[in-house]
UniProtKB/TrEMBL annotation:
Spans traversing the lipid bilayer: 316-340
Domain Ig-like: 106-209, 216-308
Pfam families found in the cross-reference section: Ig_3 (PF13927), V-set (PF07686)
UniProt-listed InterPro entries: Ig-like_dom (IPR007110), Ig-like_dom_sf (IPR036179), Ig-like_fold (IPR013783), Ig_sub (IPR003599), Ig_sub2 (IPR003598), Ig_V-set (IPR013106), JAM2 (IPR042625)
PROSITE patterns: IG_LIKE (PS50835)
Protein name as catalogued: Ig-like domain-containing protein
Taxon lineage: Eukaryota, Metazoa, Chordata, Craniata, Vertebrata
Keyword list, A-Z: Membrane, Transmembrane, Transmembrane helix
Keyword Cytoplasm: no
UniProt entry tagged with the keyword Metal-binding: no
GO biological process, one term: leukocyte cell-cell adhesion
């Protein structure tokens, strides 16, 4: 393309702060009038053409700091296709030579979509504003769609209307989507799509991530009771509703238990909410409760439950002792037998050779003669 210096008055979107400068027209193309000789150009300015080495036309231009509108003409044959190059050469400047390159491409004039806040965090039951801004080249009435991405793609706004799940609690302002009274189910990635059929690139999109914060709920606490002295024990606490996930703290008789106490008979996992005892004693007996907390709201606690530590009953003790003694005796007996057999002190009894019992021979098979009836005598 070439830049006509005599018609350059305003540049849209760019300011050139210079005084008493000479605006050298960019490449004027073959056949231009009064081209500057490359030797003269090099002598006067010391600059070279970024496109070729001839066909220049410089014209003086005095201007104030203002907006200049560039008038562009067809691209010369040796320029790259599908790209527009504007070259401003300062042929002569009293203080310092200036070279300004403005590169424009068709994508700059196509539809563009962006969001001023791609990450949105709001509390539950409040409004969430998902911003979406767009600019088009020609199409003044583009198609706007909002979709939610998950396991599949769910339409939120389509064909100039909301879908049934959002119709009663959403609104559109331009391309910006507002969802009222959001819940945890509304968390996810939302995509704003703008389709301008008349533009070079007719589709643009921007993604906004919505994270709905949920304050702690009353956790569920599991405190088994009663527990025998000396046995291991594990207490559980869980809040499955809070976002971000809650951290947990255990209390005994309304006194907080240290999570990492040295030489402690218990161990606490704040992220999982477990309280483990390696071996409980009577000193561990008391009222236990758990508290869940996160940065979305006030902490919540479950109702305190009593942990009762009891001794083994006498009959149970006797039963366990008897069973242990019996097992011990059986093991000792087996060991003694094995040792005795290994040393050979237990002689093997010889088996008496007894004659095999008499088995009478089977009876001889009788040859039965076939009886043939004879003729009877008639008297």
């Amino acid at each position: 393309m070439r830049l006509c210096a005599t018609s350059c008055q305003h540049v849209r979107g760019a300011q050139l702060h210079a005084h008493n400068a000479l605006l050298c027209a960019a490449h004027s193309g073959p056949g231009a009038r009064n081209p500057i000789c490359p030797s003269r150009r090099a002598k006067d300015t010391g600059l070279s053409c970024p496109l070729c080495t001839s066909h220049y036309n410089c014209a003086p231009l005095n201007f104030n700091p203002a907006l200049l509108t560039l008038t562009t003409l067809p691209t010369p044959p040796h320029a790259a296709p599908l790209s527009w190059t504007l070259t401003l050469l300062c042929c002569r400047m009293r203080t310092l030579p200036l070279l300004v390159m403005l590169l424009l491409c068709p994508a700059c004039l196509s539809v563009s979509v962006s969001s001023t806040k791609p990450q949105v965090e709001v509390h539950e039951h409040t409004d969430a504003v998902l911003s979406c801004e767009f600019r088009t080249e020609k199409d003044q009435n583009p198609r706007i769609e909002w979709k939610k991405k998950g396991k599949g793609v769910t339409f939120v706004y389509f064909n100039n209307r909301f879908t049934s799940a959002y119709a009663s609690r959403s609104k559109m302002e331009g391309a910006t989507l507002t969802i009222h009274s959001v819940t945890q189910k509304d968390s996810g990635d939302y995509r704003c799509e703008v389709t301008a059929s008349e533009d070079h690139v007719n589709l643009g999109e921007a993604t906004v991530t919505l994270n709905v914060l949920v304050p702690p709920h009353i956790p569920s606490c599991e405190v088994p009771s009663p527990v025998f002295v000396g046995s291991s024990l594990e207490l559980h606490c869980k809040d499955q509703m809070s976002v971000p996930p809650a951290t947990y703290r255990w209390y005994k008789d309304n006194k907080g238990l240290a999570a990492a106490a040295q030489d402690s008979p218990y161990n606490i996992d704040p992220s999982k909410g477990t309280l483990r005892f390696r071996s409980v004693s009577k000193l561990d007996e008391g009222m236990y409760r758990c508290e869940s907390s996160n940065n979305a709201g006030a902490p919540k606690s479950c109702v305190a439950q009593k942990l009762q530590i009891v001794d083994y009953p006498l009959n149970l003790t006797i039963l366990i002792a008897g069973a242990a003694a019996l097992v011990t005796l059986l093991l000792l007996g087996c060991i003694c037998v094995c040792v005795c057999r290994h040393r050979g002190c237990c002689g093997k009894t010889k088996k008496s050779k007894c004659p095999s019992p008499y088995a009478p021979p089977p009876p001889a098979a009788r040859h039965l003669k076939t009886y043939k009836p004879t003729k009877s005598f008639m008297i």
